[in-house]
Design brief:
The chain has 3 domains: about 220 residues, Isopropylmalate Dehydrogenase, CATH 3.40.718.10; about 120 residues, Isopropylmalate Dehydrogenase (3-Layer(aba) Sandwich); about 40 residues, no CATH class. It is built from 14 helices and 18 strands. The strands form 5 sheets. It has a 10-stranded mixed sheet with strand order 4-2-5-16-15-6-7-14-12-13, with helices on both faces. The protein has a two-stranded parallel ribbon with strand order 1-3. Helix 1 packs parallel to helix 14, helix 6 packs parallel to helix 7 and helix 12 crosses helix 14. It is globular, with a radius of gyration of 23 Å. The structure holds NADP nicotinamide-adenine-dinucleotide phosphate (NAP) and magnesium ion (MG). Magnesium ion (MG) binds next to helix 9.
């Protein structure tokens, strides 16, 4: 069989620990035999990030901006313990944070559904995608404890010196105080990323905030979404046969639970953090989740939603064969290859990505699965396998499908 060719490079960001091991296996078994991979490789493994003083992360992010599509392996975000473990020069920032700052995007997470793993919510038939705004609010908040009686005020001093001032509360006892912010530019790019993603995936878009209580803060989110929809997306949505729907967050929660799924739920930063864990758990697991960062100017970064699976890696280093689930990492590759194919008008590459996904799903449906899923499967007798055995089983299914 002749290998599929690529025209534009895909930005490849390698990573750490167990996911780095899976990365290699996936490339060797499931990609390189079939595709003449044209990748611009960036090693985001912690050793190389440290050796380049983290320049490699910035270079990778800029390459993502240049070529449009990247695929990223999970990476270690260093903490004090990693400083000693890897003798780091500095406690480098989270690579995801650096990449997000360059691309200015929204993270979309959707579950990978298979028949033998039923969602906990029995009427959910189709995936629910959470679109999380990844900037500001409580994640960039300023807060302190109020020691005792006194007046708390909110003060803004304009560049021209003009002041806006309001009393928050006159404390008669100790308490707590918090200031949070967001920016119109960031909210607008969040909105555009959501509208573009809805169009690209032909799904309805829901958005929810608490605008009845937060009449300026949350209401601004609602207004910016509404303005951008009216002026830039209304016609395209009508043409695609999809809807934009705004509702209060409490109403949204009730509707989501009663729904069949099959839509995108855009959430403010905190809501998205909390709701994505609820939705992913109700659908199965983080290893069965796709994750893509979409920038407002149409750049895509595909990754797994989980981390580097450190506990499995330490067992791997002792020579044990681990049963780490590679699904999210395989789907990061298929997502990126399909998007590259779409942008380049490369139908063969798009078809290959679809076929590989189908081969993965069939392997799982046949009961061959990693240990994390065995306890969740219903109506079949699962066969627990190691990561390597699982990837080899996918390869056999893939070859059968490709007639290779
Ligand atoms: P983690 O790597 O997601 O793993 C937590 C636990 O979840 C694992 O010990 C394992 O449970 C289970 N798990 C996660 N992915 C799995 C998979 N593919 N197959 C089977 N089980 C899986 O989270 P963490 O241990 O908190 O973080 C480890 C490192 O990852 C940290 O250095 C962190 O900075 C980094 N991280 C990176 C990203 C990213 O790059 N996007 C995201 C999160 C964390 P059992 O051990 O019970 O089997
Ligand atoms: Mg969280």
């Amino acid at each position: 069989m002749e290998k599929i060719r690529m025209t534009t490079p895909l930005v490849e960001m390698d990573g750490d620990e167990m996911t780095r091991i899976l990365w290699r296996m996936i490339k060797e078994e499931l990609l390189e035999p079939f595709v003449e991979l044209k990748c611009e490789y960036y090693d985001l493994g912690l050793e190389h990030r440290d050796a380049t003083r983290d320049q490699v992360t910035m270079d990778a992010a800029l390459a993502n901006k240049k070529y449009g599509v990247s695929v990223k392996c999970a990476t270690i975000t260093p903490n004090a313990q990693r400083m000693t473990e890897y003798s780091l020069h500095e406690m480098w920032k989270s690579p995801n944070g650096t990449i997000r700052a360059v691309l200015d995007g929204t993270v979309f997470r959707a579950p990978i559904l298979i028949d033998c793993i039923k969602p906990v919510v029995k009427n959910w038939k189709k995936p629910i995608t959470i679109a999380r705004h990844a900037y500001g609010d409580v994640y960039r908040g300023t807060e302190f404890r109020i020691p005792g009686p006194g007046k708390a005020e909110l003060l803004f001093t304009g560049a021209d010196g003009a002041e806006l001032r309001e009393t928050v509360y006159e404390f008669e006892c100790p308490g707590i105080l918090q200031g949070t912010y967001n920016k119109d530019t960031s909210i607008a790019s969040f909105a555009r990323s959501c509208f573009n993603y809805a169009l690209a995936t032909k799904q309805d878009l829901w958005f929810s905030t608490k605008d009845t209580i937060s009449k300026k803060y949350d209401h601004t989110f609602k207004d910016i979404f509404a303005d951008i929809f009216e002026t830039e997306y209304k016609e395209a949505f009508a043409a695609a046969g999809i809807e934009y729907f705004y509702t209060l967050i409490d109403d949204a929660v009730a509707r989501v639970i009663r729904s069949e799924g099959g839509f995108i739920w855009a959430c403010k930063n905190y809501d998205g953090d909390v709701m994505s864990d609820m939705v992913s758990t109700a659908f199965g697991s983080l290893a069965m989740m796709t994750s893509v960062l979409v920038s407002p100017d149409g750049c895509y970064e595909y990754e797994a939603a989980h981390g580097t699976v450190t506990r499995h890696y330490y067992r791997y280093l002792k020579g044990e064969a681990t049963s780490t689930n590679p699904m999210a990492t395989v789907f990061a590759w298929t997502g990126a290859l399909a998007k590259r194919g779409e942008m380049d008008g490369n139908a063969e590459l798009q078809d290959f990505a679809k076929t590989l996904e189908a081969a993965c799903l069939e392997t799982l449906e046949s009961g061959v699965m990693t240990k994390d899923l065995c306890g969740l499967a219903e109506g079949i007798t699962p066969t627990p396998v190691t990561s390597e055995e699982f990837i080899k089983a996918i390869r056999r299914n893939l070859e059968a499908k490709l007639g290779a």
